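Input.
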Amino acid sequence: MPLSGEATTTRSRGQYSTSKLLFFLILSFGLMYLDYKGQYLNKVRSYISVTTYPIHVGVNAPKNIFLKLTESMGQREKIILDNQKLKTENITLGSQIQQIYRLEKENKRLRELLDSKPKTEDIFVLAEIVTENPDPFKHRIIINKGSKEDVHTNQTIADSKGIIGHVIRDQIFGSEVLLITDPEHAIPIEVARTGLRSIALGMGSYEEIKLSYLAVNTDIQKGDILLTSGLGGQYPAGYPVAIIDKVSAQEGESFLEVRAKPFANLTNINEVWVIQRAVDGAIEFE
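Output.
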């Protein structure tokens, strides 16, 4: 039976597809053979790769952007953590620097105390201030050395610049000190320039003490140095106490008005010397 026109067309198409497939297979194998034997297609492949590069970039762009964002976020977190760490280290270093400054100041004060230690047989014990009396009319301090360290009543207290006062009450681990500026305090002194002896009295001011009952014709002047005289045995002789900063005479008065500024900085006491055994006679400072 003869084939219809539609069947003939379908058969022709099938034969054409088969022939086309065979053609491309033969072509592919031929190209592969040529590439294997002579590398003839390298230039062609190079041209094709240039043409397809934008396509590869476009396809991989979302992935690359995601990776870069992830990396950027990771770096940002690391930078934040590093910054916080640096801030913490900066605070720590600042605190340490502050400690260094404080230690340097303390060492300086200790060196001053050690350098000012007199050349004598007196025994010196270094003490620190624990507290001050809050009463403005009572100039007294508590130190951290007591009878346990052989610190007792009436022993002299001094700092690197001069006399501070003396112990009025001792306990096992601490002692109370009466300062030379307390209104109840009196200390025998001697004017270094003339040898004049007198009594210096506290006035309730940390900045000055006074000399009383000096006649108007007394040889005393501003800038004179007052030393401990050693009279009465309360204080050893020869220690600096104060410097005269005011001498005046009121008309009709029989006595001079004499004021002196203590050498010791009584408003900012940190460390002091406790003089445990005083030796009579003047002493020489280094």
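Helices lie at 5-38, 42-115.
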